[in-house]
């Protein structure tokens, strides 16, 4: 596992590093410079990013939230103090674990595990949502093509679907591809 620790303070980074000492087969990278952070993390290609911000200003928080939006990795963020707005913003930015006043070596491993599990669960939800949206869009295209066939050829709904299905089978294509071709043809002919 590759872990990037982002902290401008070497002493705070050492606490996190100590909490990860028991991990086997683990490469740990400490990044202390904020400038070029996304590029540096891209070079490291970590499996997880641990951000220790101490007591950041609102501007610093916003900067790190922008970084977390750009990364598609589990992120655990440590801060000394927080408010509801900052916690909500961190979740919106994709932070997997937002820890307030919890920087202690013995807590690092459970927080790391939680961040990875939450990131994976959220990724599965995003994948499921994208798949559902894709299926809905396909269903809408098929329904629209059926309506076109029903209006133009006088088919009933089952007949229109059967025609789409038969054409798809004959051409070795998916029904949605045929439906989209019907919609495109209708648009080219000046309808809908």
UniProtKB/TrEMBL annotation:
GO MF entries: RNA binding
Keyword flag Phosphoprotein: yes
Residues the record lists as 4-aspartylphosphate modifications: 52
SMART domains noted in UniProt: ANTAR
Xref: InterPro entries: ANTAR (IPR005561), CheY-like_superfamily (IPR011006), Sig_transdc_resp-reg_antiterm (IPR008327), Sig_transdc_resp-reg_receiver (IPR001789), WH-like_DNA-bd_sf (IPR036388)
Any one GO biological process: phosphorelay signal transduction system
Domain ANTAR: 122-183
Record key words, sorted: Phosphoprotein
Boundaries of every Response regulatory domain copy: 2-116
Designated name of the protein: ANTAR domain-containing protein
Biological source species: Novosphingobium flavum
